[in-house]
Structures are given as structure tokens and as C-alpha cells.
Amino acid sequence: MHAPVVPLPQPTSLRLRPFRAVRYDADRVGDPSELLAPPYDGLDPSRIRELRRHPHHVARLLYADAPQVAARELGRWLRRGVLRRDERPALYVHQQQRGARILQRGLIGDLLLPRQAGRLLPHEDVSAPVVRQRAAHMSALRAQLEPLLLAHRGTESTTSQLMDRVTRRRPVTVARIGQITHILWACDDRAELEDLVSALSVTKALIADGHHRHAACLQLSGDGTGPWTGSLALLVDTAMYPPRLSAIHRTVPALEPAKAARNAAEVARVRPLPGGPRPPEPGELVLTGAGQAWSITEPDPGALREALVDRPGLWARLPAAVSDHLLIRHAWSVPDLPGAVTYVHDIRQATAAVAAPGGGCALLLPAIGQDTVWELAGAGVLLPRKSTSFGPKPAAGLAMRVWGLS
Q1: Are 97 and 175 in contact (CB under 8 A)?
Q2: What are the extents of the domains in the chain?
């Protein structure tokens, strides 16, 4: 896999390199809408089982029983022409829209991962076991099935104008997943690639989604050589396309709601919500379960300091720090074990999961702002895990990075 010779950006810029994407061959397998998936953590187990019944759905690679199983499946699909590598290296314009409204547009390429601190900013902590699992999966497949989502704040419009020109041509893929249409254009013309690479001048970017995959690449890169020095990435200018930030909610299946409310009252102000659960306001958490709901505000400063000992001081104002450390760990003594706490992106799904008696309780969190995320990431402060969700996210299987093929 050889990229064309193009002028390199300034050394202080992030480098997004052309590559030959592996994509579904619609002539062989039909509409790719039936084969792509939301990001890795965007599906519940029942939906995963349903999607895996399709013989060529990307969920069979993402959620295989073992990495070696996924690797064999990927090899078969490549040999049979289910998946095909594009003939020429390209950068890919990726657009997401709802109806005629463009939600997001960015560039997909092979990002040379910087080793210097401060150029690629993570904003959330990672789990070491999850990083090992992602690394084992990627290493076995010798592939990345979905890109990192990287946000940057652009100051010029040259790149946008070049992408506009590319989108006037016929796209190489159009797929609809839920309410969102994903459209992909390949920019493989040498002169256009030179213009795009020259125009890109991104000195730093925020990892909006894909922290564990990024950490897995760094773990696999070892001595800084080989394919893991790069990563499949979607780079989006959030000055032009502001992201949607939503909260990630917690459910605690083994915790009785009324007991949780009583214990929470020892470390914060707790008030019943007679009208039932509702979205939390800024500075508030909402506890719900078995048809009841409570507002939780004004955490006790002393209890919060004790719960956040050895944690960054700025965490005290973060909803996920209050929920996970002050309430779940400190007040409720829920162990940090698999399945003890589950994370749910949809507030209605979280509420419904605990609506019946005996179903446990849910803790609903407010969203935090993009400026807060940038401020903390720039200061080197990582948010608690599962603090926020950036969107819209790219689809898995749309343009894959696979190497080791002839």
C-alpha cells in the first residue's frame, strides 16, 4: 500500500495520509445500508445477535466470539470479493445528513499518530482491559473497521472549498443507518490530493471518539515502526460542523431505588420528583427506578473531596465524577466489576430498563459543553470514563483500513 508522493505539511501539523480503503462491493452484496453498523459501543446485545445473522454484516467482524474468528471471516470476504480494496490511494470525504440537512462533513484518511504531547488530545480515561481487547482484535484482523473521530477548530476555508468540489461528483458509497444517511466520496486525483494535503494545517485535534482504539494503536506500535504508527481517522472541523454532545447514563441493576435515594441524601441534597423521571438540568443528577424519581444536587464538599482523593481538582464540577465516585462508589459501595454498572446513551432506554420493580435504578446525567471538554483536555485533565458522547459518529465498515494484502 503506497501513498502518492505529495508535499508534506509543516512538521507541526497533523498528517492525514491517503490510503486504499477496503469497502463493500455493492455489485456483489447489494445495498451497504444492510451491512454497516453504528460505532462499536452503540448496539445492545440483542441487536448485535440480530445483525450477526446476516452472512456479510460488519457486526460479524466487530463482535466475533474471538479475534481469530473475525480474521478468518475478513479473509474469506476479501477472497470472495464481498470486500474490495480501492485501486488508488485516496482521502475520503464523509458526509452525514438527516434528510437534506448536512450534520457533519470531514475527511477520512490514515493519520500518522503524533508522539508529541499536546497535538492529539484525549479527553477521557481508558480501561486497560478494554485497550488489551481492542489491541488483540485489531492485531488479529490486521485492520481497523471504523475511524477515530477527531475534532479540530479550523481557521480557514480552503479545505472546505476543496471538499465542496469533491462532493459535486458521484459518491462511491451511500448508506442509510437509522435516521442518518452516510455519503462517501473518494478524492484520488493526484493534483486534488496535493491541494488537500497542502491545505490541511491542523496543529492539534481532540479525540472525540475512539480513545480505546487510539490507545490500542499506541500499544501495538511498540518501537514506532509498522502499520500501527498510523490510524484510520475522520477529521472534522467543528467550527463549521458543531458536534452534538450528549450524556451517557448509568444503570445499576442490583441497587434498590429507594435505598439509593436514602444513601445519596447523606452526601448530597435529594428531593423527590412527583412527576417522575425527566432529563436532568445542569448541575443536577436524576435518580430513577420502579416508577419513582429523585433530583440530586449540591454534593457535600467534604464528601466529594474524600470521594475524589488523588483525582484532579477540576473533576469536582463534572457530572460523571459525582455519579461514579461520590454516589456509585462512595455512597452506594457498588463494586467496580463487569456488569455492576452499565452505560446507556439513550435516556429513554435507561429509564425503561429500570421501570419495573426489581429492575434496579438509573442515574441520568446532564451533558457537558464542548468548551469544557476542550479546556480540560488542553490542561491535560482526562474526564472520567463514559463522561460524554460526541456525535454524529461515523459508521463501522464504511471505509476500512486493511493491510498485508497483495
Answers
A1: no
A2: 15-242+392-402, 249-364
